[in-house]
Specification:
Length: 263
């Protein structure tokens, strides 16, 4: 059976500082879920847990008080509205969430590819695809080496422009099949979800082949996938479902490829 696009596990609301759309409220997000007949959605605003010490500077407005300011979430029959967060890893490899907070959240998506945040997630601005590829692998390996509840965690947008904007395909191309098989076999063993993010955009068939290769390998390794619109504005909600279907078709995903928590 074809993988059904019945959830969205990466959505921002006005609590995220980068969300500039005042209409992007939990109520509006719930409406989007109802319109698309989703069964589960998860709110994942940006978050750095102030309980976790980091050399890097994180904005106060992404602390716990702000993250939880949207609670309680609105409800609808037949639909689960999960409460989660999008978390970061600083340039020293420290993950921005404490075990106590992780316990309280339904799901977290880990951004290992926020390489545009010099001084926070990467020490300095990345100027070479080689360096970006090295960081790409090392952050995921570091994450997988931690004792974490992977059944309620995912790896966010692995192939989007956060890495090196339009040069992102150059970075992904540098990742060797062998290295990807190693990393995704570990992801499959640990049970962490792999995000299919609607911001994965390609301008040609060649770019499509490059950007989809990691996901084909992940699928081959037995990884489980969840969908994430990463919507920061209501306009992005409107095209999310169509984009999910596009990626499902490209990867020829079946229901058995779905991340258990998203079922
Ligand atoms: Zn992100
Ligand atoms: Zn996001």
């Amino acid at each position: 059976m074809r993988y059904t696009a019945d959830h969205d596990f990466h959505i921002h609301s006005t609590v995220s500082r980068c969300c500039k759309d005042p209409l992007q409220t939990p109520e509006r997000i719930l409406q989007y879920a109802k319109e698309n007949n989703y069964k589960k959605i998860c709110l994942t605003n940006h978050f750095w847990d102030e309980r976790v010490k980091s050399e890097a500077e994180w904005i106060e407005e992404h602390g716990y008080k702000y993250l939880t300011s949207v609670l309680p979430l609105p409800k609808a029959d037949g639909l689960e509205f999960l409460f989660g967060a999008e978390i970061d890893m600083d340039y020293n490899g420290i993950l921005g969430i404490s075990p106590e907070t992780l316990c309280k959240l339904d799901f977290v998506t880990v951004a290992t590819t926020h390489m545009h945040l010099a001084g926070n997630t990467v020490k300095e601005k990345i100027t070479s695809p080689e360096k970006a590829a090295e960081i790409w692998l090392s952050k995921i390996k570091n994450l997988l080496s931690m004792p974490l509840p992977f059944h309620k965690m995912g790896i966010a947008h692995m192939t989007t422009g956060h890495i090196m904007k339009e040069r992102t395909p150059e970075v992904i191309k540098l990742l060797k099949d062998e290295a990807l098989y190693e990393v995704f076999s570990d992801c499959a063993d640990k049970g962490i979800g792999i995000e299919l993010n609607t911001k994965t955009i390609f301008n040609s068939d060649e770019e499509k082949d490059i950007l989809m290769r990691p996901y084909y390998i992940a699928k081959d390794c037995g990884c489980k996938f969840y969908l994430g619109s990463d919507a920061h504005r209501t306009e992005a909600l409107n095209s999310a479902k169509e984009n999910f279907e596009r990626i499902i078709t490209i990867l020829d995903l079946k229901e058995e490829n779905k991340f258990p928590l998203a079922r």
